[in-house]
Amino acid sequence: MNMDISKTRIGVVGAGSWGTALAKLLADKGFPLDLWAFEQEVKEQIEKERENKVFLPGFVLPKNLVPSNDLEKVLKNKDLVLVVVPSHCMRNVSLEMKPFVSPDTIVVTASKGIENVTHQTMTDILSENLDFIPKENFVVLSGPSFAKEVAAKIPTVVAAASKNRQVGEYVQAVFSCSTFRVYVNDDPVGTQIGGAMKNVLAIAAGICDGMNMGLNPRAALITRGLTEMNRLGSKMGADPLTLSGLAGVGDLLLTCTGALSRNYTVGKQIGQGKKLDDIISEMRMVAEGVKTTRSVYNLSQKLGVELPICNEVYAVLFEGRPVADTVARLMNRTLKHELDGVR
């Protein structure tokens, strides 16, 4: 690990809105960095116009941010690699990364999701495919953070999760600045469960608002959604306190109440009567919660964890259940103690 932070060589994999916003943040701090874009048009836009008009329009990108479609150029001889690709692309992209990263590379993932078939987290996939890198070199960056607000330098606070405190503090120092504060924690599992499940719950919150149900149901949904996060997180070895922090309740509040959330927007349109396929066909950017809903549902069935809200989202998205029926089903469930399944 290069302990001289100012000399850190950085590669960013993924030029969507979040990847571009984080690359801009680091470039604005003065780091020279290479940004890998899958799309040729994105690379050319940034190169010629200093703007990612496809995924993050309206922001000038510094000249020390160098776009490329060449993964080897972006990754070779880098101290820190930030991976920000859609969760369903993580396996293939990380396999393509394998020849170009070294064993002492710090790999940070800011992707949020759980893989459909394997139910693995992003660090599970990365450590499996980049098995020559020590597991403590994989770090999760997560928390309440819309890309546009980070790019606009609106104060934002997130968490960097690593099993190795020194590695976590290194990433903390690289990313932190006057508008982006990073806390460290030692719970990558909980941090990733929170980051994935909040997207599913944001779809549920959007459905509520799309149906014009009022504010009471949304508050209940967020609170009980946090309970579901804790149930699944605890089963997978997460620290419940992590889910009460930035990567859990913090990100949950943001995505369940903010119009900038793609997942909330999908839910809202479903609540207004639109079909999922029609919504997805009109979106250029990925709403991670749609795929993650399937993962969370199947994982809950496999582990025997009760997640009624997430299960109803699954039924609406993939089984065609009318949204009005889900409300009745949730409200008429067997009466319980509030803390059942979380203590």
Question: What order do the helices and strands come in, and which of them pair?
Answer:
Layout: E1 10-13, H1 17-28, E2 33-36, H2 40-49, E3 65-68, H3 71-75, E4 80-83, H4 90-97, E5 106-109, H5 122-129, E6 138-142, H6 147-151, E7 156-161, H7 165-175, E8 180-185, H8 188-210, H9 215-235, H10 240-243, H11 246-257, H12 262-271, H13 276-281, H14 288-303, H15 308-318, H16 323-331
Parallel strand pairs: 1-2, 1-4, 2-3, 4-5, 5-6, 7-8
Antiparallel strand pairs: 6-7
Helix pairs in contact: 4-5, 8-9, 8-11, 8-12, 8-14, 9-11, 14-15
List keywords for this structure.
8-stranded mixed sheet; Rossmann fold; alpha/beta
What does the main sheet amount to?
A: 8 strands, mixed
CATH superfamily of the largest domain: NAD(P)-binding Rossmann-like Domain
CATH architecture of the largest domain: 3-Layer(aba) Sandwich
- Total helices: the number is 16
Overall number of structural domains: 2
Broad structural category: alpha/beta
Low-confidence stretches: none
Strand order of the largest sheet: 3-2-1-4-5-6-7-8
Strand residue content: 5-15%
Q: List SSEs in N-to-C order.
A: EHEHEHEHEHEHEHEHHHHHHHHH
| CATH fold label of the largest domain | Rossmann fold
- The CATH C-level name of the largest domain is Alpha Beta
- Please count the beta strands (DSSP E, at least 2 residues each): 8
- What is the 3D shape? globular
Separation of termini?
40 Å
Mean pLDDT: 95
